[in-house]
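Incident review: delayed structure delivery

Summary: a single-chain prediction request sat in the queue longer than the usual turnaround. Root cause was a stuck worker, restarted by the on-call engineer. No data loss occurred. The affected request and its eventual output are reproduced below so the record is complete for anyone auditing the incident later.

Affected input:
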Amino acid sequence: MAAEVLSQAGARVTVYERMPSVGRKMLMAGRGGLNLTHSEGLEDFLKRYGVGEAALRSSIEALPPEAVRDWSKGLGEDTFVGTSGRVFPVSMKASPLLRAWLRRLTSHGVRVETRSLWVGWDHEGRLAFTSGDGSRTVRPDATILALGGASWSRLGSDGGWVNILAQEGIAIAPLRAANCGFVADWSRFFCDKFQGKPLKRIALSFGDCNVRGEALITKNGIEGGAVYALSARLREAIDDVGHATVTLDLKPDLDCDAIEKALGVARGKQSMSTFLRKAVRLSPVGIGLLQEAAFALPDGLGGLEASELAGLIKAIPIKLLAAEPIDTAISTAGGVAFKELDHRLMLRRRPGVFVAGEMLDWEAPTGGYLLQGCFATGAAAGRGALEWLNRAAP
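Output delivered after worker restart:
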């Protein structure tokens, strides 16, 4: 996006890409339909960035969600709003959009040099790269760093830039897993039977935050959209006290009284699993979670009164012990502190060097907010570089 802004203004732009091809993380995002942005009102949209809202506001206001949709349409990819308010290309793919984008950048004179790994600055302040044919240096008039976070490192972003910038005295918040799964202390039986099973139309609660959505039982714990929405809070709680307990509501559309009434009929000779499946329409994995929660009780679920069982269905406690490794996370929290940047996203300690995307210290839930933040800060860095390049113009 920075290259587009600069090239449209007539600047000569070269993109240095460490991988054999560009946009690999964008293509990965496209496997889920390429959620470009979200359709909610701008003020509500901005709140999704939490503590990063103030720092990102001007960038997103300059390139709001409507502008991203227009940009996609301009590349031949119309968009639509899904039932959750998320915005996708009609094709539900990333590859057509990426190909059209690269064609347009090429038509603007943008050069792309792949297999070029940036390793820092040399003693004369030039950018240093290594590639398959050796090392080289370049001295651009302006530099934009958009090196990503540290998740899915096989796609190109491994956080290797952290040490380079830290050596320059630049403050960097530690890179952390965001929009990630969490480790739970499942029993072997539960894990073997239910890993890979989805939990649909549920709600998760932590503190004063309640999120409806879906989740997935994993070998080590739990992940999915409802979990990702709470990941920042859960991560902080685990940092503070070593664990975090979420409550899972298997029936968010029913209140306790309605569930208790359904459970108030005689069970007869039915097994507890069959009874719960028929009386409350619980899935096998939902019943498994209940049994996991009641494992320590003398009589298990069978020893609970209808009111107690209804309460458990509405609030199954799940103790989370750790975030999954950063490389498996959807995105990364942490990065270059905004205090190190001026209003143009230029490093105060490195005039002429700008930073964009996941390198910056912000995070957001899934739902289009991640790509929107990257698009917007990329465009902002491009405008900042133009301002820098034109600073001596009359």
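Verification: The chain has a mean pLDDT of 95.
Action items: add queue-age alerting; document worker restart procedure.
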